[in-house]
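QUALITY CONTROL LOG
STEP: pairwise intake check
CHECKER ROLE: data steward
CRITERIA: each record must contain a sequence immediately followed by its structure tokens, with no blank fields

ENTRY 1 OF 2
RESULT FIELD BELOW
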Amino acid sequence: MRTHKDVMKEWFHRVWTEEDISAIEEMFIPDGEARGLGGNVLIGPRDFKQFHSALCSLLRDIEITIDKSIEQGDWFSAVCSLRARSQQSGDPIEVTGSVFIRIVDGKLIEAYNHWDFLNMFGQLGLLPRSTFDSALAGQKIA
């Protein structure tokens, strides 16, 4: 029997490592919700594909691993690591994140995401690497 962890491993591999956008249609219900991937709630595969395209334009060779996880009923929660390379420079990128996802019959119904995008954008050179420390010290980032 497939576990929720199996479903998420397949999702991460197909959607991110293989960049197989057909997996988004297959595994994410049409009116499903994904939160924590920007300012708005992403509704269904169409919105998620836009996010996917934007992230894949910045990163290549994406690999997401599940480091720790818990399953309870329809819910799956995990701490994950994302390793990739910058599309522009080829430099390695490493960030962590967590997901809390409701899965029914092997399909993603709703997802709550918390990824360290601040660190990722810093590693990509889109923000000063000291952004977190400066903000924590109360300094405005200009």
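ENTRY 2 OF 2
RESULT FIELD BELOW
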Amino acid sequence: MSIHECEIALKFMENNKTPGTDGLTPEFYLYFWNLLGSFMVNSFNFAFRNRTLSISQRQGIISLIRKKKKNTEFLKNWRPVSLLNVDYKIATKTIALCLEKILPNIIHPCQSGYLKEGSLGKVSG
């Protein structure tokens, strides 16, 4: 994983979103990327070599959000969401962007249902 790849992934993230347990937002990372980028990428590469992320990178908060215009007295009208730290999101988005480049070359066109439209061209059926 490179600093440039992670910076591109970070720029894909939406601003004003709820941060994870550490309270750090995408805006924070963008603003301080020149100072933090190399440390973050080193931590990701260390984690990949050792096959585990740090505890803070693996932590999340599960919260319930009310479904719009539904009676809050019933559990079925709530949905769980996981609030993950932005550093984790940077790592996973970077991996996803890298995979996006190679998947069309390794997945048969008949199995391309979950790839971005147009990445394999039209499949005749």
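INTAKE CHECK: passed for both entries
DESCRIPTIVE NOTE, ENTRY 2: The chain has a mean pLDDT of 85.
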